[in-house]
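Continuing the series of single-chain predictions for the mutant panel. This is the parent chain; the variants come on the following pages.
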Amino acid sequence: MIMIHRSFIAYTTGHFITLMNEKATALGCTSSAFANPDGYDQDGHYTTTRDMMKICLASLSYEPIKASVAKEERTYYFQGGGMVLWTNSNLLLQDGSFNSPLATGLKTGSTGNAGYCLSVSAEDSKGRQALILLMKAHSNSERYTDALAVMNCIFD
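Parent structure:
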């Protein structure tokens, strides 16, 4: 069993947040500051759609990330035994009323201040690609309905 002291966890989380802010600045994000690694509402934690677009574009340039966010689900097996099933919360990738063959992945999120947000990577049969960001939707279904409408407009 490995014991990790709480002060070490706090230090590494703080260091990770510092690295997040440094990377955002390096990507040209000028209206963002991150105060936690998970995106939850917190004083001093904010971004804009423009900055998030830069972050999404950069993340899609890393093949392991691009492949991971495109999966509907993934099973992870731990070396010490056990496993966890991760299911992508992006309904555009799952069987159901919001499924779209154009969607290739990316990220969902929601908080009280941000509303329901969705970053969608998409590609049509001609190889045309799009990155769509929707922020502050009023409901889960609204963000997917809007995403489908935008994809239909772009790829029509």
